[in-house]
Design goal:
With 334 residues, this protein is an alpha/beta fold. It has one domain. Helices cover 16% and strands 45% of the residues. The strands form two sheets. Strands 3, 4, 6, 8, 10, 12, 14, 16, 18 and 19 form a ten-stranded mixed β-sheet that branches. It has a nine-stranded mixed β-sheet with strand order 2-1-5-7-9-11-13-15-17, covered by helices on one side. Strand 1 (70-72) and strand 2 (77-79) form a beta hairpin. The longest helix has 15 residues, at 3-17. The chain is globular. The chain starts with a helix and ends in a 9-residue tail after the last strand.
């Protein structure tokens, strides 16, 4: 059995054994995602749509005045960046599989994506290098992929990621994105979801920061009939910093289930989560922000701030901020 076959078998085992929500409170505040069967995924999309996807990508590039380095869809992949390698999951080496930081032993939906992802987008930025990267993901059928970002020591990476839907497409798009941010490195990551009302976005991301690394996260959820996200970032290096900003714009009958976890694991680490939701129509948003300050994190700072605005009496927002502090001396958690 190959390394990938073992990896997939383990992911399927985790998917079968885990509950959808680990937190008892969140089981009462959760939006379910309908996951496609293997047969539905096999029937979804067609290579015959390649020209249609490329034409739509060019349309978006004209409208945004951008040239995307990467275009991903179920039927078409385009890569023009020398910092990126796109492989089939089965082509990943044993070290790449074993080195993954999101093995999903605590996330059922993440395990499902691990088991069913087709493509792996591997991004490596060398020591002290600076790069910008733009990614366009087009929903033209059920699409699951993994993106592995390795930002080397002292490097700078700026990523803009746009999710859009081919007209008439209403499938599930599920990215699982992992970030390793090296010592004194910087990452600016902006993700904009503008899929159509019939589409579903299941977004999973996890990051580890090393000494004095810094990350700015910007998530903008606007499109898709249903959005469910899980974001985990851990300051495993002393002096590392995470600033996360999330904005939700809801209308009609859209549903959003936004889960964000920021962890202070080392001394002098800094985490801040700012979330805002503006809802109209009969849209509904769940904002679940969790911060944890581990033991022996002298000089750490952690903050969560969540706000919601409803524009009529049918829209609804539930804000569920939560914080756990294991080290109460000489830390700041206002």
């Amino acid at each position: 059995m190959s390394a990938y076959d073992e990896f997939r078998k383990d992911a399927l085992r985790q998917y079968a054994s885990l509950p959808y929500e680990m937190n008892e409170l969140y089981t009462r505040y959760a939006v379910d995602v309908k996951l496609p069967s293997e047969a539905e995924m096999e029937d979804s999309g067609s290579a015959a749509r390649k020209n249609e996807v490329e034409a739509y990508a060019k349309y978006i590039e004209e409208r945004t005045n951008m040239k995307f380095d990467i275009v991903l869809s179920n039927s078409h992949v385009r890569n023009s960046s020398d910092a990126v390698t796109i492989k089939r999951m089965g082509e990943l080496s044993e070290s790449e599989l074993n080195g993954k930081i999101f093995r999903n032993r605590d996330n059922k939906l993440g395990a499902f994506v691990n088991a069913n992802a087709r493509d792996a987008v591997v991004v490596k930025i060398g020591k002290d290098k600076a790069r910008k990267l733009s990614i366009l993901v087009i929903n033209d059928g059920h699409l699951m992929f993994q993106a592995l970002f390795d930002v080397g020591e002292g490097a700078n990476l700026d990523v803009f990621e746009l999710f859009a839907s081919l007209p008439g497409s209403g499938a599930l798009v599920a990215p699982l994105q992992e970030f390793s941010v090296g010592r004194s490195a910087r990452l600016e990551f902006t993700m904009l979801n503008d899929g159509n009302e019939s589409s579903t976005l299941l977004s999973l991301s996890k990051g580890i920061l090393y000494d004095n690394a810094g990350v700015n996260l910007n998530f903008i959820y606007n499109g898709s009939g249903l959005t469910k996200s899980f974001c985990f970032f851990d300051t495993q290096g002393s002096g590392s910093r995470v600033n996360a900003a999330e904005i939700v714009y809801g209308s009609k009958e859209q549903k959003f289930d936004v889960n964000t976890y920021v962890i202070n694991s080392k001394e002098r680490s800094y985490t801040r989560l700012e979330t805002g939701a503006v809802l109209d129509g009969s849209s509904h948003c769940l904002l679940k922000g969790y911060a944890k300050v581990e033991k022996y994190t002298k000089g750490a700072f952690s903050r969560i701030n969540q706000r919601g605005i409803v524009l009529n009496d049918k829209a609804h927002v539930d804000a569920l901020p939560d914080m756990s502090i294991d080290y109460s001396n000489e830390v700041s958690a206002p």
